[in-house]
Amino acid sequence: MSGGPATPLTKMHRAFLSTPGGSKTCEENIRVTVRIRPLSRREQAMYDLIAWECLDRNTIINKSPNQEKATVPFIFDRVFDPSCSTQTVYEEGAKDVALSALKGINSTVFTYGQTSSGKTYTMHGITENAIKDIYEYIHENPDKEFVLKLSALEIYNEHVYDLLNVESGSLRLLDDPEKGTIVEKLVEQVIKGRQHLQQLISICEAQRQVGETALNDKSSRSHQIIRLTIQSSITEDSGRIKTFIASLNLVDLAGSERASQTNASGTRLKEGSHINRSLLTLMNVIRKLSVEKRGSHIPYRDSKLTRILQHSLGGNARTAMICTASPALSHIEQTKNTLSFATSAKEVTNRAQVNMVEPDTTLVKHLQKEVARLEAELRCPDLSTSSHLRALIKEKDVKIEEMEKEMKELKRQRDLAQTQLESERKLRKEVKGLNQDGPSDHVVRRLAFEMDPSSSSVRSTPANSKLRSTIARKTVLRQSVTSTDPSLVVSEIRKLDERQRQLEEEASRVLEILHKEIASHKIGDQEAAENIVKLLSEIKNMKVVGSFQEVVTADKANLLEEISRLNCQGNDILSLERKLEHVQETIDKLVSAFQMTVEDPLEYRSSKKKKGLPFNLSNSPNVQNIIRGPCSPLSSSRKAMDHETENMDPKDRISISYKDSPSRSNRTPILKQSKSINVKKMERMFKTAAEENIGSIKAYVTELKERVAKLQYQKQLLVCQVLELEKNQSPVEVDMADQSPMTWPVLFEDQRKQIIMLWHLCHVPIIHRTQFYLLFQGDPSDQIYMEVELRRLTWLEQHFAELGNASPALLGDDPAGSVSSSIKALREERDYLAKRVCSKLTPEEREWLYEKWEIPPGGKQRRLQLVSKLWTDPLNMQNVQESAEVVAKLVGFCESGEQVRKEMFQLNFVSPNDRKPWMMGWNMISNLLHRELMLMTKKRKGTMTIHISVTGTKSGPETGLAGEGLGRNHRSSESRTRGRIIPLKFD
Ligand SMILES: Nc1ncnc2c1ncn2[C@@H]1O[C@H](COP(=O)(O)OP(=O)(O)OP(=O)(O)O)[C@@H](O)[C@H]1O
């Protein structure tokens, strides 16, 4: 093979061209040098001959004795004979190019040649020298700031591997429109210093695939590319920072080889074929670049090597190629090939340019202009001239309008679906109503409780279809939140939330753009600043949030309406409770008066005189009220009494009239007289009438209490549901209307287990657990209680889970709602119960229990040990049952022999007459529900005012919704708010 033509001298000159942006493009040929190594020991041993002679610094010629043709010299940028050191090779063959990276120009140094020709040997020296020079340069330029990063890869068998992260496996090549081919996930390490860099390079060299061949004990079996990225910044006198960034690629190629020479087989043969193939592609690329016209297709993509090195081959880089060769005659053909390749390479022209990151002056000018324009606009008092901002606002307005339209459409669809659903329900109810006599089960199960007693009679007329449809309509109205499919409402709320998010994002984007613009412009003018504030507020006041809130308010109107309705009920409750209190007082007084009268009329009179009792049976206006009460059959008793009085002997009548006598002095003789007349008969009459009256009054009171309790439950159930919907959590799916009687026992057991577990998790007072457990044993009418209990416990459990023990911070000054305070309250409750063990249990009972609950005899605090074991195993129903029995005994439930009515079970689980300090714990927990609702409604920021009724008795709040004061420290506020209507303003 003949040598190539000499490189024209003109091509050796580099031309720096100015780019439009001001940076320079360096158009130059690849710098190609040839290094001939000394004969290796192996070659010497074989008495190999030297076949090449370096005629001068640039020329090498084949001096083989048996040449048939005249040899043509090869001319390169530099030819290094075997005596040249690596230092010289670096200085004259690579340094200039390598150090270009320090000035923002990409550079690449290749070593190319036959296997064992000295590529790795040379590249190792080049790398060391380059590192040394780079750090010297950094040292000599303290005014510049440098950031060095290193990445390293090898291409082995056409796979790319990260030499700094061997675990990564084969990496993919990606095409980046700006950067060209990049290696995905290639690690790039920031260099901390020269030693660190050297250490990393050593690691790369150690990681590289090396194998023994016949020609080289440590033959590199892969192409290695070490990339050092250098970022340098300099601050000019003007304060402008110029930043340059460039990469230095140090490429040590695997050597071309002949299988016959390397004796390769198996793995080595395969490696060799991959190496040769990729080198062939490299040669093709170089050849095409050297001969083809600019713009013609260059097959970079034929190998990973050429893809990765694309910039270095005819692109934005300065490239130096050091071709290494053996002088041995035995490798003459290989060397000729190398020199031929090198000859092509020197024809390749690159266009390197300085890579400056510094903000372009044009951009700066543009920004300055923009600042000036905006400042001028802001100075103008008429905002209408702020065309940019106006356009922005207009654009947003259009978007908002579109979104509002979308929302309206969504709302319309939702309403349509709801109407369909409701009419379907209505229809179902009517059909059901026709098939039933008496009160509708459906209605009862729906928790709809008629306040108006007359409506019961309406319902009890099944034949009247008109009335039935009225009831159905009422029930549908009542259902609202309680019976509207929660998933439908939740889905609507989610949709609206999504809309809200989108709108808020839009608004934020507008504000962000404005902020950025304004922040980037230095506004020294007060007027301009004011205008900006004005504009910002105008943007903020865009109808985004407002319009959304209106929509949301409207969409959640059913929830709010429901709350309002409940609060109206709350007012009813309040008035009912007042009446109730009043009636209760009357009863108490009547009972005591009656008992005293019957037991000893004389004593009664004297005590009445002493205590100054303000009324008696006949003249009490309260009695009149009671008698006139809708449920009181007292009138009949009274009539009976009157009737008996009328039929009395006139003498007997005197005995009745003594009470009315204004003259107290006359009483004794009259009384004596009356007694002598028919005392027994009168006593009997009086007793019967009084007993009848009291019974009736009690029945009336009980009825009132039932109404109040049921309304309260209904109210709390709604609160729970609202909270669930608010939290977008799937509600406890218990649609009682659809519960068939057959499934209720199963459902009850399931709910009870959940409740027991939740009691345990929420550290609910054990007296409450006992009361609830014993009262609600699975009767179908227990459904509402089970439902409410489960819902609020579920909420509490979630609340505690969210709160954790660090709740005080979240609760502000009120640590009462924390888990720890509940645990403390539970402990105090156990102490209280332990104290009752002796008084409530006989010694025999105690011993029996100690034995049963395995309390060791003679142990200390056996009572406390016993109580500590109660309600501790929520999964063990026997433990639950027995715990309830013991606690019931200790507390004295049903001691009076009177069955506690379920309806009387208070929502805050505290017997009003028996509040203990530890009971406040559960009060507080229960009241969290109420507070959550408050917070939720406050957050809603609607425009309506909702009144939450806060009611209570003298000893504390009576309902789960009542009471603002949550802790002992808040007692004063509790008493302040008790019994008042607290308006919650939505603004
Ligand atoms: N200029 C030189 N002076 C002295 N020894 C050299 C020179 N160049 C190479 N050698 C030696 O020759 C041997 C082969 O060199 P090297 O491994 O660098 O070859 P290579 O081209 O990288 O081979 P391969 O392609 O198989 O990896 C090594 O033992 C090395 O020390």
Structure explained in plain terms:
The protein has 987 residues and is of the alpha+beta class. Among the domains are: 18-353, 3-Layer(aba) Sandwich (Kinesin); 387-555, no CATH class; 576-731, no CATH class. Helix content is 55%, strand content 12%. It has 34 helices and 24 strands. The strands form seven sheets. Strands 3, 7, 8, 9, 10, 11, 14, 17, 18 and 19 form a ten-stranded mixed beta sheet that branches. The chain has a three-stranded antiparallel beta sheet with strand order 1-2-20, with no helix packed on it. β17 and β18 form a beta hairpin. It starts with 8 loop residues before the first helix and ends with a strand. The protein binds adenosine-5'-triphosphate. Residues 37-38, 40, 113, 115-121, 216, 218-220, 254-255, 324 line the site of adenosine-5'-triphosphate.
